[in-house]
Specification:
The chain is of the alpha+beta class and 462 residues long. Helix content is 32%, strand content 22%. It has helices at residues 16-27, 69-75, 114-119, 124-131, 147-155, 157-172, 181-184, 186-193, 198-203, 221-227, 273-280, 285-291, 338-341, 370-385, 410-420, 432-435, 439-454; strands at 8-12, 31-35, 47-50, 53-56, 62-63, 83-84, 90-94, 97-100, 105-106, 109-110, 213-215, 234-236, 241-246, 252-256, 261-264, 266-269, 296-307, 321-323, 332-336, 350-357, 393-404, 427-429. It has a seven-stranded mixed beta sheet. The protein has a five-stranded parallel beta sheet with strand order 12-2-1-16-22, with helices on one face. The longest helix has 16 residues, at 157-172. The structure holds flavin-adenine dinucleotide (FAD). The site of flavin-adenine dinucleotide has 36 residues, from α1, β17, β21 and α17.
Length: 462
Protein backbone atom coordinates (compact mmCIF):
# COMPACT_ATOMS: atom_id res chain seq x y z
CA UNK A 1 0.00 0.00 0.00
CA UNK A 2 1.43 3.41 -0.88
CA UNK A 3 1.23 6.10 1.75
CA UNK A 4 0.27 9.58 0.65
CA UNK A 5 1.80 12.05 3.02
CA UNK A 6 -0.08 14.86 4.62
CA UNK A 7 -1.58 17.13 1.96
CA UNK A 8 -3.79 19.42 3.95
CA UNK A 9 -2.67 21.32 7.05
CA UNK A 10 -4.46 23.90 9.17
CA UNK A 11 -2.14 26.41 10.84
CA UNK A 12 -3.85 28.19 13.73
CA UNK A 13 -2.14 31.54 14.40
CA UNK A 14 -0.66 33.82 11.76
CA UNK A 15 2.28 35.17 13.75
CA UNK A 16 5.83 34.61 12.57
CA UNK A 17 5.81 30.97 13.76
CA UNK A 18 2.64 30.07 11.86
CA UNK A 19 3.85 31.90 8.76
CA UNK A 20 7.25 30.19 8.72
CA UNK A 21 5.52 26.84 9.12
CA UNK A 22 2.98 27.52 6.35
CA UNK A 23 5.67 28.60 3.92
CA UNK A 24 7.76 25.45 4.38
CA UNK A 25 4.68 23.23 3.99
CA UNK A 26 3.54 25.04 0.88
CA UNK A 27 6.99 24.63 -0.65
CA UNK A 28 6.52 20.87 -0.25
CA UNK A 29 3.24 20.95 -2.14
CA UNK A 30 1.05 20.74 0.97
CA UNK A 31 -2.25 22.62 0.91
CA UNK A 32 -2.14 25.05 3.86
CA UNK A 33 -4.74 27.28 5.45
CA UNK A 34 -3.73 29.84 8.06
CA UNK A 35 -6.44 30.84 10.53
CA UNK A 36 -5.69 34.13 12.24
CA UNK A 37 -7.97 35.71 14.84
CA UNK A 38 -6.79 39.28 14.16
CA UNK A 39 -7.68 41.19 11.00
CA UNK A 40 -4.00 41.13 9.94
CA UNK A 41 -1.17 38.62 9.94
CA UNK A 42 2.01 39.12 11.94
CA UNK A 43 1.00 38.66 15.60
CA UNK A 44 3.60 40.48 17.66
CA UNK A 45 5.04 42.12 14.55
CA UNK A 46 3.11 45.29 13.80
CA UNK A 47 3.98 48.72 12.45
CA UNK A 48 2.39 52.11 13.00
CA UNK A 49 3.03 55.59 11.64
CA UNK A 50 4.50 58.18 14.00
CA UNK A 51 5.62 61.61 12.78
CA UNK A 52 5.43 60.32 9.21
CA UNK A 53 7.66 57.28 9.83
CA UNK A 54 6.74 53.61 9.83
CA UNK A 55 7.88 52.26 13.19
CA UNK A 56 7.59 48.86 14.82
CA UNK A 57 5.36 48.61 17.87
CA UNK A 58 6.11 44.95 18.62
CA UNK A 59 9.31 43.17 17.59
CA UNK A 60 11.71 45.79 16.37
CA UNK A 61 14.78 44.02 15.00
CA UNK A 62 15.83 40.67 13.62
CA UNK A 63 19.03 39.12 14.89
CA UNK A 64 20.62 38.24 11.57
CA UNK A 65 23.39 36.09 13.08
CA UNK A 66 20.88 33.72 14.70
CA UNK A 67 20.91 30.23 13.14
CA UNK A 68 18.90 30.08 9.93
CA UNK A 69 17.90 33.74 9.90
CA UNK A 70 20.20 35.09 7.23
CA UNK A 71 19.46 32.06 5.01
CA UNK A 72 15.73 32.77 5.25
CA UNK A 73 16.23 36.47 4.56
CA UNK A 74 18.25 35.64 1.44
CA UNK A 75 15.71 33.05 0.33
CA UNK A 76 12.96 35.68 0.61
CA UNK A 77 15.04 38.08 -1.52
CA UNK A 78 15.25 40.57 1.34
CA UNK A 79 19.00 40.60 2.00
CA UNK A 80 19.84 43.61 -0.18
CA UNK A 81 17.21 45.77 1.49
CA UNK A 82 18.32 45.01 5.07
CA UNK A 83 19.12 48.02 7.23
CA UNK A 84 21.51 47.32 10.10
CA UNK A 85 21.42 49.27 13.31
CA UNK A 86 24.01 52.01 13.81
CA UNK A 87 26.86 50.94 16.07
CA UNK A 88 26.61 52.91 19.28
CA UNK A 89 26.45 52.46 23.00
CA UNK A 90 23.57 51.46 25.24
CA UNK A 91 23.04 53.06 28.63
CA UNK A 92 22.18 51.51 31.95
CA UNK A 93 20.26 53.73 34.32
CA UNK A 94 22.07 53.10 37.60
CA UNK A 95 21.61 54.68 41.03
CA UNK A 96 24.43 57.02 40.06
CA UNK A 97 22.96 58.06 36.72
CA UNK A 98 23.47 56.76 33.20
CA UNK A 99 26.44 54.48 32.64
CA UNK A 100 27.55 52.84 29.41
CA UNK A 101 26.65 49.16 29.23
CA UNK A 102 30.15 47.67 29.29
CA UNK A 103 31.31 45.88 26.14
CA UNK A 104 31.01 42.12 26.38
CA UNK A 105 27.95 42.13 28.66
CA UNK A 106 25.29 39.97 27.10
CA UNK A 107 21.88 38.94 28.39
CA UNK A 108 23.48 36.27 30.57
CA UNK A 109 26.21 38.29 32.18
CA UNK A 110 29.74 39.33 31.42
CA UNK A 111 31.84 37.65 28.78
CA UNK A 112 34.88 39.75 29.60
CA UNK A 113 35.93 41.21 32.93
CA UNK A 114 38.08 44.14 31.87
CA UNK A 115 35.21 46.31 30.51
CA UNK A 116 33.31 45.67 33.77
CA UNK A 117 36.32 46.62 35.85
CA UNK A 118 36.54 49.86 33.88
CA UNK A 119 32.81 50.60 34.02
CA UNK A 120 32.86 51.70 37.67
CA UNK A 121 29.43 50.13 38.01
CA UNK A 122 30.31 47.68 40.76
CA UNK A 123 31.66 48.01 44.26
CA UNK A 124 35.23 46.84 44.96
CA UNK A 125 33.79 43.83 46.82
CA UNK A 126 31.46 43.04 43.88
CA UNK A 127 34.35 43.27 41.44
CA UNK A 128 36.58 40.98 43.47
CA UNK A 129 33.74 38.47 43.76
CA UNK A 130 33.09 38.57 39.98
CA UNK A 131 36.81 38.23 39.24
CA UNK A 132 36.97 35.03 41.29
CA UNK A 133 34.60 33.29 38.86
CA UNK A 134 37.25 30.99 37.30
CA UNK A 135 38.07 29.73 40.81
CA UNK A 136 34.50 29.16 42.01
CA UNK A 137 33.71 25.41 42.28
CA UNK A 138 31.61 24.30 39.29
CA UNK A 139 28.44 22.64 40.50
CA UNK A 140 26.09 20.36 38.61
CA UNK A 141 23.04 22.41 37.61
CA UNK A 142 20.90 19.29 37.29
CA UNK A 143 17.82 19.47 35.10
CA UNK A 144 17.61 23.29 35.30
CA UNK A 145 18.28 26.31 37.48
CA UNK A 146 17.23 29.97 37.42
CA UNK A 147 19.57 32.09 35.34
CA UNK A 148 19.86 34.56 38.24
CA UNK A 149 20.82 31.81 40.67
CA UNK A 150 23.45 30.42 38.32
CA UNK A 151 25.05 33.79 37.52
CA UNK A 152 24.95 34.71 41.18
CA UNK A 153 26.78 31.47 42.07
CA UNK A 154 29.44 32.15 39.47
CA UNK A 155 29.89 35.95 39.68
CA UNK A 156 28.03 37.15 42.77
CA UNK A 157 24.68 38.87 43.10
CA UNK A 158 25.87 42.34 41.97
CA UNK A 159 26.37 41.04 38.43
CA UNK A 160 22.81 39.71 38.46
CA UNK A 161 21.29 42.95 39.80
CA UNK A 162 23.34 45.32 37.69
CA UNK A 163 23.63 43.48 34.36
CA UNK A 164 21.55 40.32 34.04
CA UNK A 165 18.31 41.81 35.38
CA UNK A 166 18.27 44.89 33.11
CA UNK A 167 19.44 43.01 30.01
CA UNK A 168 17.95 39.50 30.15
CA UNK A 169 15.15 40.33 32.60
CA UNK A 170 14.05 43.25 30.45
CA UNK A 171 14.14 41.19 27.25
CA UNK A 172 11.84 38.60 28.82
CA UNK A 173 9.85 41.10 30.91
CA UNK A 174 10.55 38.60 33.64
CA UNK A 175 12.17 37.75 36.93
CA UNK A 176 15.74 36.51 36.42
CA UNK A 177 15.42 34.52 39.63
CA UNK A 178 12.69 32.45 37.96
CA UNK A 179 13.72 32.42 34.29
CA UNK A 180 15.21 29.11 33.14
CA UNK A 181 18.92 28.95 32.40
CA UNK A 182 18.36 26.20 29.82
CA UNK A 183 15.54 28.02 28.01
CA UNK A 184 16.77 31.61 28.13
CA UNK A 185 20.56 31.26 28.16
CA UNK A 186 21.35 27.94 26.45
CA UNK A 187 24.99 28.95 25.76
CA UNK A 188 25.50 29.49 29.45
CA UNK A 189 23.78 26.19 30.25
CA UNK A 190 26.23 24.43 27.92
CA UNK A 191 29.15 26.00 29.81
CA UNK A 192 27.56 24.87 33.06
CA UNK A 193 27.08 21.31 31.77
CA UNK A 194 30.71 21.20 30.71
CA UNK A 195 31.65 22.27 34.25
CA UNK A 196 33.73 25.09 32.73
CA UNK A 197 34.42 28.57 33.95
CA UNK A 198 32.22 31.10 32.09
CA UNK A 199 35.06 33.60 31.77
CA UNK A 200 37.69 31.07 30.66
CA UNK A 201 35.34 29.36 28.23
CA UNK A 202 34.29 32.63 26.66
CA UNK A 203 37.81 33.99 26.45
CA UNK A 204 38.51 31.45 23.69
CA UNK A 205 35.43 32.54 21.74
CA UNK A 206 35.85 36.28 21.55
CA UNK A 207 35.90 36.21 17.77
CA UNK A 208 32.53 34.41 17.50
CA UNK A 209 29.54 35.82 15.59
CA UNK A 210 28.80 39.40 16.60
CA UNK A 211 25.28 40.52 17.47
CA UNK A 212 23.80 42.12 14.38
CA UNK A 213 20.34 43.64 14.42
CA UNK A 214 18.49 44.66 11.32
CA UNK A 215 15.17 45.73 9.88
CA UNK A 216 13.73 47.07 6.62
CA UNK A 217 12.66 50.55 5.64
CA UNK A 218 8.97 49.68 6.16
CA UNK A 219 9.70 47.81 9.39
CA UNK A 220 9.44 44.13 10.20
CA UNK A 221 6.06 43.72 8.51
CA UNK A 222 8.21 43.42 5.36
CA UNK A 223 9.16 39.97 6.64
CA UNK A 224 5.52 39.12 7.34
CA UNK A 225 4.42 40.27 3.88
CA UNK A 226 7.15 38.34 2.10
CA UNK A 227 6.52 35.17 4.11
CA UNK A 228 2.81 35.28 3.32
CA UNK A 229 3.25 36.23 -0.35
CA UNK A 230 2.93 32.58 -1.44
CA UNK A 231 -0.44 32.64 -3.18
CA UNK A 232 -0.90 28.88 -2.68
CA UNK A 233 -1.37 29.50 1.05
CA UNK A 234 -4.99 30.21 1.94
CA UNK A 235 -5.19 32.95 4.59
CA UNK A 236 -8.28 33.47 6.73
CA UNK A 237 -7.87 36.52 8.91
CA UNK A 238 -10.49 37.64 11.49
CA UNK A 239 -11.09 33.92 12.04
CA UNK A 240 -10.67 32.74 15.60
CA UNK A 241 -10.48 28.97 16.10
CA UNK A 242 -12.31 27.74 19.19
CA UNK A 243 -12.14 23.97 18.84
CA UNK A 244 -10.09 21.20 17.31
CA UNK A 245 -11.52 17.70 17.56
CA UNK A 246 -10.19 14.29 16.54
CA UNK A 247 -12.09 12.52 13.77
CA UNK A 248 -12.50 8.73 13.64
CA UNK A 249 -10.33 8.57 10.49
CA UNK A 250 -7.37 10.20 12.27
CA UNK A 251 -7.94 13.62 10.76
CA UNK A 252 -8.88 16.79 12.63
CA UNK A 253 -11.95 18.98 12.55
CA UNK A 254 -11.29 22.67 13.18
CA UNK A 255 -14.12 25.05 14.04
CA UNK A 256 -14.01 28.81 14.11
CA UNK A 257 -16.13 31.06 16.30
CA UNK A 258 -18.12 32.11 13.22
CA UNK A 259 -19.13 28.52 12.45
CA UNK A 260 -16.59 27.65 9.76
CA UNK A 261 -15.69 23.92 9.82
CA UNK A 262 -12.49 22.65 8.19
CA UNK A 263 -10.97 19.17 8.06
CA UNK A 264 -7.24 18.65 7.91
CA UNK A 265 -4.64 15.88 8.06
CA UNK A 266 -2.61 17.90 10.52
CA UNK A 267 -3.04 20.97 12.72
CA UNK A 268 -0.30 23.30 13.89
CA UNK A 269 -1.20 25.38 16.92
CA UNK A 270 1.02 28.45 16.64
CA UNK A 271 -0.85 30.28 19.39
CA UNK A 272 -0.03 31.19 23.01
CA UNK A 273 -0.31 28.40 25.58
CA UNK A 274 -3.52 29.68 27.19
CA UNK A 275 -5.30 29.37 23.80
CA UNK A 276 -3.58 26.10 22.89
CA UNK A 277 -4.50 24.62 26.28
CA UNK A 278 -8.22 24.81 25.45
CA UNK A 279 -7.70 23.54 21.90
CA UNK A 280 -5.76 20.44 23.00
CA UNK A 281 -8.06 19.57 25.92
CA UNK A 282 -10.07 17.03 23.87
CA UNK A 283 -6.78 15.22 23.12
CA UNK A 284 -5.08 15.36 26.52
CA UNK A 285 -6.49 16.82 29.68
CA UNK A 286 -3.06 16.36 31.24
CA UNK A 287 -1.23 18.33 28.53
CA UNK A 288 -3.86 21.08 28.76
CA UNK A 289 -3.33 21.35 32.53
CA UNK A 290 0.46 21.50 32.08
CA UNK A 291 0.16 24.25 29.45
CA UNK A 292 -1.79 26.25 32.00
CA UNK A 293 1.40 26.55 34.08
CA UNK A 294 3.10 28.96 31.68
CA UNK A 295 2.86 32.53 33.01
CA UNK A 296 2.79 35.63 30.78
CA UNK A 297 3.79 39.26 31.11
CA UNK A 298 1.63 41.99 29.64
CA UNK A 299 3.66 44.74 28.04
CA UNK A 300 3.06 48.03 26.25
CA UNK A 301 5.18 50.05 23.86
CA UNK A 302 4.88 53.74 23.07
CA UNK A 303 6.72 55.46 20.23
CA UNK A 304 6.99 59.20 20.82
CA UNK A 305 8.32 62.06 18.72
CA UNK A 306 10.38 64.79 20.43
CA UNK A 307 11.03 68.05 18.57
CA UNK A 308 14.66 67.62 17.54
CA UNK A 309 15.67 71.27 17.75
CA UNK A 310 14.86 71.33 21.48
CA UNK A 311 16.77 68.23 22.53
CA UNK A 312 20.17 68.70 20.94
CA UNK A 313 21.81 68.96 24.36
CA UNK A 314 20.49 65.64 25.65
CA UNK A 315 23.70 63.62 25.64
CA UNK A 316 21.97 60.30 26.29
CA UNK A 317 20.41 60.43 22.82
CA UNK A 318 23.83 59.79 21.27
CA UNK A 319 23.38 56.18 22.39
CA UNK A 320 20.92 53.71 20.90
CA UNK A 321 18.89 53.33 24.07
CA UNK A 322 18.76 52.77 27.79
CA UNK A 323 17.88 49.89 30.08
CA UNK A 324 16.29 50.25 33.49
CA UNK A 325 17.00 47.67 36.22
CA UNK A 326 13.85 46.43 37.98
CA UNK A 327 15.36 47.55 41.31
CA UNK A 328 14.68 51.17 40.25
CA UNK A 329 10.91 50.48 40.41
CA UNK A 330 10.12 52.58 37.35
CA UNK A 331 7.41 52.00 34.77
CA UNK A 332 9.98 52.52 32.01
CA UNK A 333 11.74 49.20 31.35
CA UNK A 334 13.75 50.29 28.34
CA UNK A 335 13.91 53.14 25.84
CA UNK A 336 15.17 52.74 22.29
CA UNK A 337 16.43 55.89 20.62
CA UNK A 338 15.08 55.01 17.20
CA UNK A 339 16.46 58.06 15.39
CA UNK A 340 19.97 57.21 16.63
CA UNK A 341 19.69 53.46 16.23
CA UNK A 342 18.26 53.28 12.69
CA UNK A 343 19.65 55.26 9.75
CA UNK A 344 16.23 55.38 8.02
CA UNK A 345 14.59 56.95 11.09
CA UNK A 346 16.88 59.98 11.25
CA UNK A 347 14.60 63.00 10.85
CA UNK A 348 15.53 66.69 10.77
CA UNK A 349 12.40 67.67 12.73
CA UNK A 350 11.85 64.86 15.22
CA UNK A 351 13.76 62.41 17.37
CA UNK A 352 11.77 59.19 17.67
CA UNK A 353 12.01 57.25 20.91
CA UNK A 354 10.36 53.95 21.74
CA UNK A 355 9.42 53.27 25.36
CA UNK A 356 8.90 49.72 26.65
CA UNK A 357 6.99 48.93 29.83
CA UNK A 358 5.47 45.98 31.65
CA UNK A 359 7.00 43.18 33.68
CA UNK A 360 5.57 39.90 34.81
CA UNK A 361 3.18 40.28 37.73
CA UNK A 362 2.73 44.05 37.24
CA UNK A 363 -0.70 45.44 36.44
CA UNK A 364 0.13 49.13 36.49
CA UNK A 365 0.05 49.68 32.74
CA UNK A 366 -3.53 48.34 32.60
CA UNK A 367 -4.67 51.09 34.94
CA UNK A 368 -3.36 53.94 32.80
CA UNK A 369 -4.95 55.28 29.64
CA UNK A 370 -2.64 55.97 26.70
CA UNK A 371 -2.02 59.63 27.55
CA UNK A 372 -1.27 58.82 31.21
CA UNK A 373 1.00 55.93 30.22
CA UNK A 374 3.03 58.15 27.88
CA UNK A 375 3.23 60.88 30.53
CA UNK A 376 4.60 58.41 33.10
CA UNK A 377 7.11 56.94 30.66
CA UNK A 378 8.24 60.39 29.59
CA UNK A 379 8.72 61.37 33.25
CA UNK A 380 11.00 58.38 33.76
CA UNK A 381 12.88 59.32 30.59
CA UNK A 382 13.21 62.87 31.91
CA UNK A 383 14.62 61.62 35.23
CA UNK A 384 17.07 59.35 33.43
CA UNK A 385 18.29 61.67 30.68
CA UNK A 386 17.39 65.21 31.70
CA UNK A 387 15.16 65.73 28.65
CA UNK A 388 12.68 68.46 29.51
CA UNK A 389 10.65 69.01 26.36
CA UNK A 390 7.50 66.90 26.05
CA UNK A 391 6.74 64.63 23.08
CA UNK A 392 4.50 66.21 20.45
CA UNK A 393 3.16 62.96 19.02
CA UNK A 394 2.80 59.39 20.25
CA UNK A 395 1.39 55.98 19.43
CA UNK A 396 0.73 53.32 22.07
CA UNK A 397 0.44 49.59 21.50
CA UNK A 398 -0.64 47.27 24.29
CA UNK A 399 0.36 43.62 24.25
CA UNK A 400 -1.76 41.84 26.88
CA UNK A 401 -0.35 38.50 28.14
CA UNK A 402 2.20 38.55 25.33
CA UNK A 403 5.55 37.48 26.72
CA UNK A 404 5.65 33.85 27.88
CA UNK A 405 7.75 33.30 30.96
CA UNK A 406 10.21 30.53 30.22
CA UNK A 407 10.77 29.68 33.86
CA UNK A 408 12.84 26.95 35.51
CA UNK A 409 11.85 23.58 34.04
CA UNK A 410 10.28 25.11 30.92
CA UNK A 411 12.01 22.83 28.40
CA UNK A 412 11.10 19.76 30.43
CA UNK A 413 7.49 20.94 30.71
CA UNK A 414 7.21 21.46 26.95
CA UNK A 415 8.81 18.05 26.26
CA UNK A 416 6.25 16.39 28.57
CA UNK A 417 3.37 18.23 26.89
CA UNK A 418 4.59 17.16 23.46
CA UNK A 419 5.03 13.58 24.66
CA UNK A 420 1.42 13.65 25.87
CA UNK A 421 0.29 14.55 22.36
CA UNK A 422 2.38 11.90 20.60
CA UNK A 423 -0.62 9.63 20.18
CA UNK A 424 -2.09 12.31 17.88
CA UNK A 425 0.44 12.60 15.07
CA UNK A 426 -0.10 15.81 13.20
CA UNK A 427 -1.21 17.84 16.22
CA UNK A 428 1.78 20.13 16.72
CA UNK A 429 2.65 23.09 18.92
CA UNK A 430 4.86 25.91 17.63
CA UNK A 431 5.92 29.37 18.68
CA UNK A 432 7.54 31.52 21.30
CA UNK A 433 5.62 29.99 24.18
CA UNK A 434 7.20 26.60 23.53
CA UNK A 435 10.53 27.05 21.77
CA UNK A 436 11.77 30.47 22.82
CA UNK A 437 11.20 34.17 22.36
CA UNK A 438 12.22 36.12 19.30
CA UNK A 439 11.74 36.00 15.58
CA UNK A 440 14.64 33.64 14.85
CA UNK A 441 13.54 31.08 17.46
CA UNK A 442 9.95 31.30 16.18
CA UNK A 443 11.02 30.74 12.57
CA UNK A 444 12.93 27.63 13.65
CA UNK A 445 9.97 26.45 15.71
CA UNK A 446 7.54 26.94 12.80
CA UNK A 447 9.86 25.15 10.38
CA UNK A 448 10.25 22.21 12.78
CA UNK A 449 6.46 21.99 13.07
CA UNK A 450 6.27 21.86 9.25
CA UNK A 451 8.70 18.96 9.20
CA UNK A 452 6.67 17.01 11.74
CA UNK A 453 3.49 17.58 9.67
CA UNK A 454 5.24 16.29 6.56
CA UNK A 455 5.79 12.99 8.31
CA UNK A 456 2.04 12.49 8.88
CA UNK A 457 0.33 10.11 6.45
CA UNK A 458 -2.69 11.56 4.68
CA UNK A 459 -6.04 9.92 5.35
CA UNK A 460 -8.43 9.20 2.49
CA UNK A 461 -11.14 11.85 2.70
CA UNK A 462 -14.81 11.07 2.52
C1 LIG B 1 6.86 44.55 22.50
C2 LIG B 1 7.62 43.38 21.93
C3 LIG B 1 8.90 43.58 21.44
C4 LIG B 1 9.62 42.52 20.89
N1 LIG B 1 10.83 42.76 20.32
C5 LIG B 1 11.46 41.78 19.64
C6 LIG B 1 12.59 42.07 18.82
O1 LIG B 1 13.02 43.21 18.70
N2 LIG B 1 13.18 41.05 18.15
C7 LIG B 1 12.71 39.76 18.22
O2 LIG B 1 13.27 38.86 17.57
N3 LIG B 1 11.59 39.46 18.96
C8 LIG B 1 10.97 40.44 19.65
N4 LIG B 1 9.82 40.17 20.35
C9 LIG B 1 9.35 38.78 20.45
C10 LIG B 1 8.72 38.28 19.14
O3 LIG B 1 7.96 39.30 18.56
C11 LIG B 1 7.84 37.10 19.44
O4 LIG B 1 8.57 36.10 20.16
C12 LIG B 1 7.26 36.45 18.17
O5 LIG B 1 6.81 37.42 17.26
C13 LIG B 1 6.13 35.52 18.57
O6 LIG B 1 5.62 34.93 17.41
P1 LIG B 1 4.54 33.76 17.50
O7 LIG B 1 4.13 33.45 16.10
O8 LIG B 1 5.06 32.62 18.30
O9 LIG B 1 3.34 34.36 18.35
P2 LIG B 1 2.39 35.60 18.04
O10 LIG B 1 3.09 36.64 17.30
O11 LIG B 1 1.77 35.93 19.35
O12 LIG B 1 1.29 34.98 17.07
C14 LIG B 1 0.23 34.18 17.53
C15 LIG B 1 -0.97 34.51 16.66
O13 LIG B 1 -2.04 33.66 17.01
C16 LIG B 1 -3.24 34.39 16.85
N5 LIG B 1 -4.29 33.71 17.61
C17 LIG B 1 -4.45 33.65 18.96
N6 LIG B 1 -5.53 32.92 19.25
C18 LIG B 1 -6.06 32.48 18.07
C19 LIG B 1 -7.19 31.66 17.73
N7 LIG B 1 -8.00 31.12 18.68
N8 LIG B 1 -7.44 31.43 16.41
C20 LIG B 1 -6.63 31.95 15.45
N9 LIG B 1 -5.55 32.74 15.73
C21 LIG B 1 -5.27 32.98 17.02
C22 LIG B 1 -2.87 35.76 17.42
O14 LIG B 1 -3.79 36.74 16.98
C23 LIG B 1 -1.47 35.94 16.86
O15 LIG B 1 -1.47 36.61 15.63
C24 LIG B 1 9.06 41.22 20.89
C25 LIG B 1 7.77 41.02 21.40
C26 LIG B 1 7.05 42.08 21.91
C27 LIG B 1 5.64 41.87 22.42
Amino acid sequence: MSVIYCHNVAVVGGGISGLACARRLSQQGVRVTIFEAAPVLGGQIRTATVAGHLVDMGAEAVHTAAPGMSALISELGLADELITSNPSISWLWTERGLRRLPAGVGPSGPQRLLPILNSRMMSIGGLIRAGLEPLVPRRDIGSDIAVGEFVSQRFGCQVVERFVDPVLGSLHSGDVNRLSLRATAPDLAAVADARSSVILKRRGRQNGPTMSFATWVNGLTTLVERLSADTRIEVRTSTSIDSVTPMSDGRYEIRSTDGLVTRADAVVLAVPTRIAAELIRPFSQNAAEMLGHVRYASVATAVVAYPRALITKVRALTGTGLLVPSSRHRLLKAATFLSTKWPHLIDPTYALVRFSSGRVGEQEIDNLDDAALVARLHNDMQDATGITVKPTEYHVQRWPAAIPQLEVGHLELVAKIRANLESHPGLTLAGASYDGLGIAACVRSGERAALSCLAVPSQPSG
